[in-house]
Protein 1
Amino acid sequence: MMPIRSTPLRKALGKTVAALAVCTAALFVAGCASTPPDHFYTLSGREGATIYHPSAADAAPFYIEVTDTTIPDTVARPQMVLDMGDGRISVVEHQRWVAPLSTEISQAVSDYLTRSLHTIDVYRSPTADRLPVYRVSMNVRRFVSVPSQSTAIDMVWTVRGRDQQDAHETPLVTCRSVVTEKIGVGYDAIAQGHRRGLQQIAADIGGVITTLNETPAPVSPPPAPQVKGKPPVVAARPAAPVVPCP
C-alpha cells in the first residue's frame, strides 16, 4: 500500500478525526448532563438547632432506649416507594432517604422523645448511674405514601421500663398507632407528612413513658412466717399497674 504523501489530504483526515473526537466528547457530556440528580430527605425534621439541652437540675430522672425499628420489605430500600393505587407501586429512583428508612424512623422518634422528655437515649451506651431505663421497640406494619394525597403509618410499639437498682421490670405496654396525614404536591410533602405522623406517634409513646415513670411499682408483701412441719406459704404476687394506650 502506497503511503499518503499529499499534505492537503493528511490535513483533511486530521480535521475529520478531531471533529469526531469533539462530537464524541460533546455527546458524552450531554449524556451526563441529562442524568437527573439525586434528592435526599430525612424524617428528623429541622429542629436540630432548637434541641433542648437539659441541665442537671431539670433533666428527667430516667433514660430511654429507642431500639432498631422493623419495617416492611416493600419499603426497605433507599428510594421512596409510592402507592399509585390499584395495586401499582412506583419506586422513585432519584428521590431517596438520607439513611436507611428503619434508621430514619428510630432517629426521628428518639429525637422527639429526648427533646420532649428532657432525657437521653442510651441505646447501646453504658450508663454510670442507676436511673430507670424505658426501652421503646417499634414494628411498622405499613408505611404508605400516596402522592399528592396522603401518607399513612401503621405501627405496633412497646414500652418496657427497667429499674437498674433492683433489676425490677415494669409491665410491658403494647400499643398500636395508625396515623394518616393529608399532604400537598411533591416529594417534600411526602417527607413532611411522614414526619408529622412520626411526631404524633412519638408523642403517644412519650405519654406512656411519663405514666409508667409516675406509677409506683407494686410492693411485695413480707414473707409469711414458716410453721414447722408445714409447707412454706408463697405470698401472692402484687398485681402490676395497668397503663392504657393513648
Protein 2
Amino acid sequence: MKKPKVAFICVHNSCRSQIAEALSKHLSSNVFESYSAGTETKPQINQDAVRLMKDMYQIDMEKTQYSKLLSEIPQVDIVITMGCNVNCPAIPCKYREDWGLSDPTGKNDVEFSKAIHSIHTKILELTEKIIKDELISKKI
C-alpha cells in the first residue's frame, strides 16, 4: 500500500503547520508523507518554533523546511488544518480534520511548548488512525 500524503495547512505556514510537518517526519515517516503549506508565506519559519524544536527534539526545521504556498505541495490524501481563526485554506483531499490549535506566535516558551506537545500527541493519534485505516476507506 502506498503511503498517504498528509498536508498540514495554516494561513502563513510559519509556525504550527511547520512544527507538524517536522514532527510528522520525525515520528511517522514510516506511515505517511508529510507536507505543510499556506495561502501566504513568511520570509522564515517562526524562530521560537525553530529554537524550541531544536531544544526538545534536536530537529533543525530550517535545514529542510521553508514557508510554502498550497500550490507548491503535491496533491494530498489528508488535510489537517491547524485552527486558523479565519477561513482555513481549502484543498482537495479524501479526508479533512481541523485541530483547532491556538497560534503560539508572540507567546512565551511555556505556551509554545504546550502547542508543540499538543501537535506531538495529535500526530501520534493521526498515525494510529492511518495505521488502522480509519480515515481513508479506499486503499491508496
Protein 3
Amino acid sequence: MEKSLNLLLLLSLFPMLLSAQKMGYVDTEYILNKHPDYKKIQEEMEAVSSEWRKEAQNLEEEIQQMYSDLQGEQVLLTDEMYQERLELIREKQREARAFNNRIFGENGQLYQKQSELLQPLQSTIYDAIDRVAKRNGLAILFDKASSPTSIIYTDPRHDYSDFIIEELGLEENN
C-alpha cells in the first residue's frame, strides 16, 4: 500500500519535474559546416573516395574488355577454351564485387576512413555541447540534424548552435 502511494505521489509530481527542465536544440550539421577542419576532412574523403571509385571503374572496364575480347575470339575457341575464358571473367567479376563490398560496403574502408577522420572533430564538438549545456542549465538538448528526428518545429530562441560555434572559437569564421 505504501509503495503504491509513493508511486502515485511520484507520478503526480512527474509533470512538474519535467516542466522545470530546460531544453534546447543544436544543429550539428550547421556546426560542422562552420568548422574549417570539416572542409579539410571532406576534401580528404573526396580524394580517397575518388581514388577508390577510379579503381572500381578500372576493374569494370577490364571485365568489359575481357568480355569483348571473348566475343571477338569466340569463333576461334573450342567450347572448353570458351568456358575457361568465361570462368576467368566470372572470377574477375567476383573480385570486383568483393572489392566494392570491402571498400564501399556497409562497414567498408570508406566508412571506416570517414569515421577515423571525423572522430576527433566530433569529440571536440560534443565536448563544446556538453560545456554549453551545463553552462546554460540544460537538461535536454536535441540534435536537429540527427535522423530520424522527432522535432517538427523549432523556436530559434532555443537554438544553441551558435553558442557551440562560439565555444569552439569559430564565431569569426564564415
